[in-house]
Amino acid sequence: MATQQTTTAGRVLVAPSVILLFVWMIVPLVMTLYFSSLRYSLLDPDNVSFVGLQNYTAFLTDPDFLTALYNTLVLVISVLIISVCGGILVALLMDQPVFGQNVLRLMVIAPFFVIPTVSALVWKNLLMNPDSGLFAWIARSLGFDPIVWFTNWPMLSVIVIVSWEWLPFASLILLTALQSLDEEQKEAASLDGAGPISYFGYIVLPHIARAITVVILIETIFLLSVFAEIYVTTAGGPGNATTNIPFLVYKQALLNFDIGGASAGGIIAVILANIVAFFLVRIIGRNLEG
Amino acid sequence: MAMKQSTGKRIGVTVLAWVVAFLIFFPILWTFITSFKSELDAIAMPPKFLFFNWTLENYFAVQERSNYLKFAYNSIVLSIGANVFGLLIAVPAAWSMAFAPGKRTKDLLMWMLSTKMMPAVGALVPIYLLFRDLHLLDSLFGVGVVLLLINLPLLIWMLYTYFKEIPVDILEAARMDGASLLNEILYVLTPMAVPGIASTMLLAVILSWNEAFWTLNLTTSNAAPLPAFIASYSAPEGFFWAKLSAASTLAIAPILILGWFSQKQLVRGLTFGAVK
User: I need a surface site. Which of A71, A81, A145, A283 has the fewest CB within 10 A?
Assistant: First the structure.
């Protein structure tokens, strides 16, 4: 198989990628760690001093941080529930032999390709505006008062937008998994007289279980970093009702110029993501063996 | 055709499927329709669905008022440029991991994957400061390098899964015939892997086109691509819905079409081969 020559060549060819990724991963991380131990404000850049873990204790005891952590979790978990449960239903529906299946699939997957800033602004204005938005018209037509989405339900509004972006992803992945269920198994189940619920519970769900896990983990990674949608709709407000950890770090760094504090927040975000990544990498790694 | 369905049930399922798909797609359709309205029609109550004076004025206005083409140009340069250079680095790496694997290849792949999971916000502060000191803020080169780096693990991974499907015998036959390594990669591997490389490129372009964290934070005007251009419509121009819609339609149309072509590859790429 691999000769001495190809092994050497292999090492040489893989080196640029490894070096680039290593630098990209390590340099910012080490710098962030270093900054997180400093009192360092861009407003007063000549006055930098070492403060140890003070930024972390300040960050972790700051009520704003706890709110941001809470908001992050609410956003991630809500969108996960909506997109995964909705995704299973949509995937089951799209797996049926219906007229125009291919067109349907294109329509369902489309939101995933929309630039996040576009999604957010279209939803905020064209759909959710309490005066001239489409939802307001629907509410009034049905005799309700329109919901003042971003004032009264800011977090729910963000959740709705982000769910719309991620539902197609979950649907597409789960549909792909569904389609690999072999016909024989389906027929055997129907011959055995399995009802739709037991068919779903005993045949479908176990078959797509791994795909569901993968969807949950990948979405979690991305959802922990939701930024653009918040940036263009609420700017973290009102108050800090929709400030998640990425937005808090951005605010701390680029609006309050507090490099030390922002870095501590960044490290906390890294730790959170790594907890999820740990499980994801194991699952994908197991898949690689097979 | 798993279970025998009565005709009634079948029609029911079909109608339901179409309703659900229509609802999911509706915001995009609505944006598209609104882009042809006058500003007054765009905020009319009750909403005007199809019967209004269709006009192209918003598309001209978007170009005139905010120079859409400049941002589109930046998006094209960034998403294609960064990934062409990315491929030049990734193809050899994927080749070596697929065809000349060592003991540590699997670990290396997993490690590359893990770099993709670093949240961007963890690197924001140092990258911002480095870019400020190196005068790379708001430069195509600077943002391009970042986009290349965040997509590199994905490129390598996808290419790796495609290369793995190519029978190694063919490459060895070429080697027996005395083909050099360069010729082997260029003339034997690449032609067979073209579909895989194209799919990989497509997905990477889509992801770069839609990337909004780094582009919002590292650009202001010169190097700003479309996500940042649209963000400028958040206020006060967000009140001009027809123009926002025209700008949005222009920004998402090309990638929507590319995306529709690459659905299958999307699954493989985004799940790192865990779901095929």
Answer: A145
| Cross-chain Cβ contact B119/A273 below 8 Å | yes
Give which of B15, B193, B8, B5 is closest to B92, Cα–Cα.
B193
State the Cα–Cα distance between residues B95 and A13, nearest whole angstrom. 8
| pLDDT tens column, A117-158 | 899 988 988 888 888 888 888 888 888 888 888 888 899 999
Neighbours of A65 (CB within 10 A): 21
Q: What are phi and psi of B100, to 5 degrees?
A: -135, 55
Between A259-289 and B121-133, two packed helices, what is the crossing angle to 10 degrees? 120
A chain contacts of residue B44, beta-carbon cutoff 8 Å: 132
Rounded Cα distance between B97 and B105, Å, is: 6
List the beta bridge partners of residue A125: none
- Closest CA in chain B for residue A10: B96
Q: How far apart are CA B80 and CA B151, in angstroms?
A: 12
Which residues, including other chains, have CB under 8 Å from residue A189's CB and lie 6 or more apart? A199, A202, A203, B2
Cα gap A249→A271, rounded to integer Å:
14
Instruction: Give residue for tokens 């579909």.
Output: B195
Which of B30, B261, B275, B276 should we substitute to test contact with A (largest number of A Cβ atoms within 10 Å)? B275
The complex scores an ipTM of 0.84
In terms of Cβ atoms closer than 10 Å to its own Cβ (0-12, 13-18, 19+), residue A73 is: middle
Q: How many angstroms separate the CA atoms of B171 and A194, rounded?
A: 49
What are chain A's domains? 63-289 (1.10.3720.10)
- Best CA proximity match to B127, nearest among A49, A47, A263, A43: A263
Quote the pLDDT of residue B96. Answer: 84
First to last CA, chain A: 20
CB A241, CB A155: distance < 8 Å: yes
SS3 B157: helix
pLDDT tens figures, B157-173 = 888 888 888 887 877 78
CB atoms B22 and A164 under 8 Å: no
- Structural domains of chain B, ranges and CATH numbers in brackets: 7-57 (no CATH), 66-270 (1.10.3720.10)
Dihedral class, residue B201 (left if φ above 0, else alpha if ψ from -120 to 50, else beta): alpha
Q: Which of A183, A189, A225 sits opposite B119 (nearest CB)?
A: A225
Which candidate, A79, A39, A76, A284, places its Cα nearest to that of A161? A79
